[in-house]
């Protein structure tokens, strides 16, 4: 009863704009590479890192995802480093040392012997079954020695993480977030632009969501065309095709430019996006054009450390209640975040996180999974205490609740 209720509670952590510094122009960047398309594929990601280390990401079922650090071992890292074409691992990292990934957490509690040919032969909770957040993304450090015959040299940089808007006019120490500008994507060597051929408002919506804004608006493309005509540009992406509900640009489809990018994007210009801030962040003065309706009165976040995170509650027949859904994910969580005036969801949190919080009180108890090292840094994102009624009975009897 109680334990089941706890496992059903879900939460959300929304993108919220930061009082940002004004972006600097990008620096020249090397050329990008397209990822291949085999069934199971691996890559190293994150910043900062060397070519033989990083957050481990795996492509499964056509979706890139991460691996949780719970119970992680050097034997796991050996298997993963061989997937990446290295002879062995020299170490592994926990708690998103190379930054948090996005999208799926594909594997959790992985337990390899070390000699497996594939990570899918190792024990785990199964593909897509995890009680982790991206704060627990595992990384590997591989021995810088290639397996004989291994040719792939594209592992270093083949996907998108950080995105920013570079405003037309720079104002140092501007006390407002940048809401409009040229979309730039971070590369290892600097920032690069996106060719806006076939760009549409659904792409803009995803960019705004990532930056903590609930919606997008039209932009004066001609103004930016003139502005950027004589700027040195470093195009990296083109043919971006988001459906609009993605929580991160990396979850959209797009292409990387290959080889020499001089003359890239002849039929277009750098993608420019303009975002609308949520009602919570607009001066409550006279009504302004291009702002949104007040946030929903039927959904709220409770128990989070910040306004942008918490347990999702909905109002029905004058009563607030929680939501239970096994398939709670970034897409659905983003709907709630945007409805509340935030951007897309940074994490869709399930009740297991709270359940694990309870489990920490009872290490070794029957039926309670062992907690791996690295758990200590958990809680940076989501700290929703359970309401008394939802606390599992077993834990309540233990008398160790925070
Ligand atoms: Ca962990
Ligand atoms: Ca786990």
UniProtKB/TrEMBL annotation:
One Pfam family it belongs to: SRCR
Domain of life: Eukaryota
Disordered: annotated segments: 351-373
GO biological process: collagen fibril organization; inflammatory response
UniProt entry tagged with the keyword Hydrolase: no
Places the protein is found: Membrane
An example Gene Ontology molecular-function term: protein-lysine 6-oxidase activity
Keywords: Disulfide bond, Glycoprotein, Membrane, Repeat, Signal, Transmembrane, Transmembrane helix
Cellular component annotations (GO), alphabetically ordered: extracellular space; membrane
Signal peptide (residue range): 1-23
Principal subcellular localization: membrane
Membrane topology recorded in Swiss-Prot or TrEMBL: Single-pass membrane protein
Domain SRCR: start-end pairs: 42-143, 163-276, 299-357
Entries under SUPFAM superfamilies matching the protein: SRCR-like (SSF56487)
Protein name (record): Lysyl oxidase like 3
Source organism (scientific name): Varanus komodoensis (Komodo dragon)
Lineage: Eukaryota, Metazoa, Chordata, Craniata, Vertebrata
């Amino acid at each position: 009863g109680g334990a089941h209720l706890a496992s059903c509670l879900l939460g959300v952590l929304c993108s919220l704009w930061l009082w940002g510094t004004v972006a600097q122009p990008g620096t020249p960047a090397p050329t990008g590479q397209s990822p291949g398309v085999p069934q199971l594929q691996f890559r190293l990601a994150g910043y900062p890192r060397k070519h033989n280390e990083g957050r481990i990401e795996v492509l499964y079922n056509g979706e890139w995802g991460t691996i949780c650090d719970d119970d992680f071992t050097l034997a796991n890292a050996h298997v993963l480093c061989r997937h990446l074409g290295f002879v062995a691992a020299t170490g592994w990292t926990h708690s998103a040392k190379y930054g948090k990934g996005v999208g799926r957490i594909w594997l959790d509690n992985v337990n390899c012997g070390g000699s497996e040919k594939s990570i899918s032969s190792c024990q785990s909770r199964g593909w897509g079954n995890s009680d982790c957040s991206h704060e627990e993304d595992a990384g590997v450090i591989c021995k810088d020695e290639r397996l004989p015959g291994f040719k792939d040299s594209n592992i270093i940089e083949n996907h998108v993480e950080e995105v920013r808007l570079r405003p037309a006019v720079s104002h140092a120490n501007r006390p407002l977030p940048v809401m409009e500008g040229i979309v730039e994507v971070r590369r290892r060597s600097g920032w690069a632009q996106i060719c806006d051929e076939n760009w549409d408002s659904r792409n803009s919506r995803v960019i705004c969501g990532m930056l903590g804004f609930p919606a997008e608006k039209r932009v004066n493309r001609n103004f930016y065309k003139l502005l950027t005509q004589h700027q040195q540009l470093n195009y990296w992406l083109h043919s971006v095709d988001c459906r609009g509900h993605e929580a991160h640009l990396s979850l959209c489809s797009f292409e990387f430019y290959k080889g020499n990018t001089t003359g890239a994007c002849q039929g277009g210009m750098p993608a420019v996006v303009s975002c609308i801030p949520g009602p919570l962040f607009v001066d409550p003065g006279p009504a302004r054009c291009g702002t949104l309706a007040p946030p929903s009165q039927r959904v709220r976040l409770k128990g989070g450390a910040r306004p942008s995170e918490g347990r999702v509650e909905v109002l029905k027949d004058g009563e607030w209640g929680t939501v239970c859904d096994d398939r709670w994910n970034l897409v659905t969580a983003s709907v709630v975040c945007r409805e509340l005036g935030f951007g897309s969801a940074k994490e869709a949190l399930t009740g297991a996180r709270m359940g694990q919080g309870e489990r920490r009180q009872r290490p070794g108890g029957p039926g309670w999974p062992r907690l791996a090292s690295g758990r200590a840094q958990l809680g940076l994102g989501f700290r929703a205490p359970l309401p008394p009624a939802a606390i599992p009975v077993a834990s309540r009897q233990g008398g160790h609740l925070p």
